[in-house]
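Hey team,

Filing this mostly as a record. A colleague (T.K.) asked me to run one chain through the structure pipeline before their review meeting, and I want the input and output archived in the tracker in case anyone asks later how it was produced. No errors, nothing strange. Just documentation.

Input sequence:
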Amino acid sequence: MKRFTRLVPAAVVALAAIGGTWAHAGAQGVPPVRGGMTVRPITQDPTASVPRVSLEELKKLIAADDVLIVDVRGDETYREGHIPGAISIPLADVEKRAGELRKTPKKIVTYCS
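Output structure:
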């Protein structure tokens, strides 16, 4: 069973940073980016393989203490309000904090709105 689940499509970027490479170097017809690497445009929905979780499923995971909820919005937005128990890891910081997330035995649910 996959540990990563999402509530909204934008959070898949966070999961991609944790789970591995989501772009290919050397794609034809795509201009190079910093460091000479090129990125292949996404041709299909990158969120298609990421499981979704319903509110009821999330409530069950919370009750079983089997979920780490990650709010990937900015710090200011997080401070304005968030799901109780959620930790804040802004989307820009997910890659550098991926090791921290990989250590949890719990399922990970990300959200951004």
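Quick notes for T.K.: The chain has four helices and four strands. The helical segments are 12-19, 55-63, 75-80, 98-102.
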